[in-house]
């Protein structure tokens, strides 16, 4: 009985392959374009608007990170003493940045994604950080956050928006 069912499934699969069109249709987004396609058109003004809106908070994030990093290496008494405040400041910052990203859906997808990656990394760091030496995965997350941050830093700078 099992062999008959398996054989029937094989026949149905082969028939389906033979009768299907050669290319499967691509799922489309609201504009009718493939959902994986980049946003159509010039996004310069939308990008500038996002950069202008988010720049002051990115500058504040720089201040939070630099103040914490300037306290010394992870695991030192000064840095350990400041860890709880850094976590609180970071989580508060994430809560204020996210709505600004969400309010600019027309900006270039790369710009949005790189800002979002940086914010998400900050959020994950704040959730996992504890006083003491940094585990390897948190060191990697800090590095990834810096890499993601270079996206908005360079794009916004090209648009004349600096912080």
TrEMBL record:
Region called Disordered, residue ranges: 23-44
Signal peptide: 1-23
Skewed-composition ranges (Low complexity): 23-41
Superkingdom of origin: Bacteria
Keywords per UniProt: Signal
Protein name as it appears in the record: Uncharacterized protein
Annotated organism of origin: [Mycobacterium] nativiensis
